Amino acid sequence: MMKFVVRSSRNGVRSGVITELPGRPDVTIETPMCMVYSRTGSVPHLTPDVASKIDGTPLITHIPINSLIGHLSAVKQCKKGIRDFAVLGDTLLYGSLQDPAEPVFPGKNDKHSVAVWSKGGRISVNPEMYVEVQEAFKFDWFAALSDGDTDKQTSRKRVRKSVDRTLQWLDESIEKLQKSDVQSSERLFGVLEGGFEIDQRVHSAKETALRPVAGFCIEGFNTAGPETEKVDFTEIKSILHETLTHLPSEKPRIMHQVWPPHLVLEALEAGIDIFDSSFPYIVTERNAALIFDFKYNGTRSQVIKPNGGSDSESATRVGYEIDLKDKRFESDFSGLLAGCSCYTCRNFTRSYICHLVNTRELLASVLLMIHNVHHYFEFFRHIRLSIQEDKFLELLKLINSQRNVPEKT
Amino acid sequence: MAEGLQKRLQTEYEKLKSVQKDYQKYVTTRQQLDAQLQENTLVKEELDNLEDGANVYKMMGPVLVKQDQTEAKSNVQKRIEYINGELKRHETIIKDLETCGSKQGKDDYEESQTLAAGKIQTMAKHALSLKILGECSTTKARVCQLTLPHQVVDTPVFMPVGTQGTLKGILPEQLEDLGCQIMLSNTYHLGHRPGPELLTQAGGLHNWMRWNRALLTDSGGFQMVSLLKLAEITEQGVKFESPHDGSEMMLTPEESMRIQNSIGADIMMQLDDVVSSTTSGPRVEEAMHRSIRWLDRCIKAHKNTSKQNLFAIVQGGLDETLRNQCIEEMTKRDVPGFAIGGLSGGEEKQHFWKMVNISTDSLPKEKPRYLMGVGYAVDLVVCSALGCDMFDCVFPTRTARFGTALVPSGQLQLKKEVYANDTRPIDDNCECLTCRNYSRAYLHSIVTKETIACHLVTLHNVAYQLNLMKYVRKSIMEDTLPKFIQNFMLEQFPHKQYPQWAVDALSTVGVTLL
Question: CATH classification of A3-283, choosing from 3.40.50.2300, 3.20.20.105, 3.30.450.20, 3.20.20.140?
Answer without folding.
Answer: 3.20.20.105
